């Protein structure tokens, strides 16, 4: 198993500003994402990740997001086990996110 990369919220903000080609997956529950998501993020609750994994492009770079970074690390490890090579876990999750939100 490959080591999971960790991305800080500042690094993600910079990547978004530079229009870096990465996909953000928010694994929080519905009531949590109702409080706002990172722009461009796709919502896939953690419990739905196993059934959605076949719809994801394993050649893309992903950033997994949750409230604090624990659930997204679980999702990151799952994708890694499924052969995804470019998976990042957002350190500190939405608790540390200072950027724009979409509702």
Mind explaining what this structure looks like?
With 103 residues, this protein is α/β, with parallel strands linked by helices. It has one domain: Oxidized Rhodanese, domain 1 (3-Layer(aba) Sandwich), CATH 3.40.250. It has five helices and five strands. It has helices spanning 9-17, 30-33, 49-52, 70-81, 93-96, and strands at residues 5-7, 23-26, 42-43, 62-65, 87-90. The termini are far apart.
Mean pLDDT across every amino acid position: 95
Q: Report the CATH C-level class.
A: Alpha Beta
Spans of at least 5 consecutive residues with low confidence: none
Helix and strand pattern: EHEHEHEHEH
Query: Architecture, CATH level 2?
Result: 3-Layer(aba) Sandwich
Structural class: alpha/beta
In DSSP terms (H or I, runs of 4 or more residues), the helix count works out at 5
Question: Could you tell me the radius of gyration in angstroms?
Answer: 12 Å
**Sheet with most strands:** 5 strands, parallel
Organism: Halobacillus campisalis
Domain Rhodanese: 18-102
Protein name: Rhodanese-like domain-containing protein
Pfam family, one: Rhodanese
Briefly summarize what is shown.
The chain has 103 residues and is of the alpha/beta class. The chain has one domain: 3-Layer(aba) Sandwich (Oxidized Rhodanese, domain 1), CATH 3.40.250.10. The chain contains five helices and five strands.
List keywords for this structure.
32% helix; 5 helices; 103 residues; globular; Oxidized Rhodanese, domain 1
Note the topology.
Layout: E1 5-7, H1 9-17, E2 23-26, H2 30-33, E3 42-43, H3 49-52, E4 62-65, H4 70-81, E5 87-90, H5 93-96
